[in-house]
Amino acid sequence: MASDPYKVVSMIYDHMMHRLSYNEWAKYIIDIKTFYKNDAEKFLEIACGTGKLDKYLEKSFNDIVLLDISKSMLDCIPSSKKRVCANMTRQPFKSNFDFIYSTFDSINYITDEEEIVKYMGEIRNILSDDGIFTFDASLETNSIKNVKRLNRVNKFRGMEYKQVSKYEKDIRLHMNSFRMKLANGEIIEEVHTQKIYDFEFYFDAAERAGLHVLDCFEAFTFEDANEESERIQFIMKKL
Ligand SMILES: C[S@@+](CC[C@H](N)C(=O)[O-])C[C@H]1O[C@@H](n2cnc3c(N)ncnc32)[C@H](O)[C@@H]1O
């Protein structure tokens, strides 16, 4: 696996997210599974990061595989868990999953439209016939509204880090730059780039990939989303 896009941020990720309620996020994912009466036995979390969500889902979901492209993020998860280092657009699995989920706008890290279609096609290939694929995506309203709020400076375990967030509206790229000063004085940097797609794009991409959109909700609710929403939650199954 060539790239590790979260090598730097893996050192501070849990500190950066310490105010976020993964417990509530996990409840929402469980509610989705219940709502669609999904009788899942095999679960796959895509772009699982440091496994923060999994800490709450492992009690409810039995057989979970955790996938991420970043070895550094996966290394934060106990080795007793089933961890797979792979690119979400190139799924390595031969068997199927009944419930596939991904959180925190991870799909936006795919910055090319054709790669999104490829990703969805790969998911379709490993989704069981009655399986559910659910993920959230960040829309432009979110980038515009929250870009300044993401700028921050903080300290953690002797390290200092600075996050600078920038949204380039004309090319629809949202960039988060991280500059870290380690305890030994070394400076390291990393830039995360996310593509902000149109609301409608996801529907077209799903259809092209052979997936059917059952619903698209305002994230954390069961209310229909629209192009003005900040974060949207897709529920898909095979066409
Ligand atoms: C914002 S973090 C979200 C992590 C986790 N889902 C959470 O909610 O805390 C995005 C994650 O996506 C992963 N990622 C980015 N591009 C990826 C790719 N092409 N394939 C798999 N994982 C990817 C990163 O390594 C990172 O762990």
From TrEMBL:
This is Methyltransferase type 11 domain-containing protein. It comes from hydrothermal vent metagenome. Signal peptide: none annotated. Pfam families: Methyltransf_11 (PF08241). InterPro entries: Methyltransf_11, SAM-dependent_MTases_sf. GO terms for molecular function: S-adenosylmethionine-dependent methyltransferase activity. Residues 44-134 form the Methyltransferase type domain.
